[in-house]
Task: structure prediction
Amino acid sequence: MELAGLFLSSFLAATLLPGGSEAVLFALVKLHPEQATTAFILATVGNTLGGMTTYGMARLLPEKKLPQKSAVVARHGAPILILAWAPIVGDALCAAAGWLRLPWLQCALWMALGKGLRYGVVMAGAGAF
Result:
């Protein structure tokens, strides 16, 4: 049940809803260190799927003139999504990538890398590594 809650928290934290999935991961690893690897994977996958949900919703929007803020994403492409973990700006990056119709697989991989690195820092702080 706790792992399902972590997955849900991680997923929702990557959408426009506020959330503190890092605190949930930290607490879970402290309480159940034997579940550290599973928790890390679930948090990373859940958060990446949440980001890809934002990407997918934005992809459904009609194409129009490129807003100036999206120009950064257009210039850097999918690798900019390594920053998708960042508060506030991360959601905007995911949405811009979808709206710009950047390749979904590249976006998902860069997004997962950034989110995994962030959760890796949380895991290290919890003493899991």
Notes: The longest helix spans residues 36-59. Residues 2-125 form one domain. The helical segments are 2-13, 21-31, 36-59, 71-76, 89-99, 104-125. The chain has six helices and no strands.
